[in-house]
Amino acid sequence: KGYKVVYPPDGYESWSPKDVFEAAYRATDGMSFGLAIEAAKMGKKIARAGWNGKGMFLFLATDIEFHTEADLSCVSDLEGDLTLPAFVMKTADDHFCVGWLASQTDLLADDWKIVE
Predict the structure, then answer these.
(1) How far is 46 from 40, CA to CA, in rounded Å?
(2) Among 70, 50, 56, CA closest to 100
(3) Burial (CB count <10 Å: 0-12, 13-18, 19+), residue 25
(4) pLDDT beyond 90 at 50
(5) What is the full DSSP assignment across 6-53?
(6) What is d(CA 67, CA 90) in angstroms, rounded to the nearest whole number?
(7) d(CA 87, CA 82)
(8) What angle do CA 31, 24, 101 make, to 5 degrees?
């Protein structure tokens, strides 16, 4: 007994014994947070199926421009690329929340998906 596995996009096929396959894989309705992060790094938008807000998703911003009235003279060099990558959430009311942080529930959820 075992499993035939077909991998997209080229259709590569392999066979795995039942006990080996079931020790390495488990059923899920989506992706883990780790896989969702990898998708975001490839430029995909991601979201949790369990989020209540309509149209909410995250994306990874690699360069963020911001404006502030704060005195930043304490920063020694304000030239060049000063921002680090950050998750940005597109909210249900069509705003962007820069610097989104995952909750404990988000980290452990397996209902992450890629938003097309």
Answers:
(1) 7
(2) 56
(3) exposed
(4) no
(5) EETTTTEEEEEEHHHHHHH----SSB-HHHHHHHHHTT-EEEETT--S
(6) 19
(7) 16
(8) 30
Which residue, among 18, 55, 62, has the nearest Cα to 40 in the 3D structure?
62
Q: What is the pLDDT of residues 25-43, one digit of tens each?
A: 877 779 999 999 999 999 9
55, two tokens: 């149209």
**H or E stretch at 106:** helix 104-108
What is the pTM (predicted TM-score) of this model? 0.74
Structure tokens at 12: 């590569």
Classify burial at 84, counting beta carbons within 10 Å of its beta carbon; exposed 0-12, middle 13-18, buried 19 or more.
Answer: exposed
Residue with tokens 């991601």: 46
Q: Could you give the CA distance from residue 99 to residue 76 in angstroms, rounded to a whole number?
A: 23
State the Rg of the chain over Cα.
Answer: 20
**What SS3 state is found at 86?**
strand
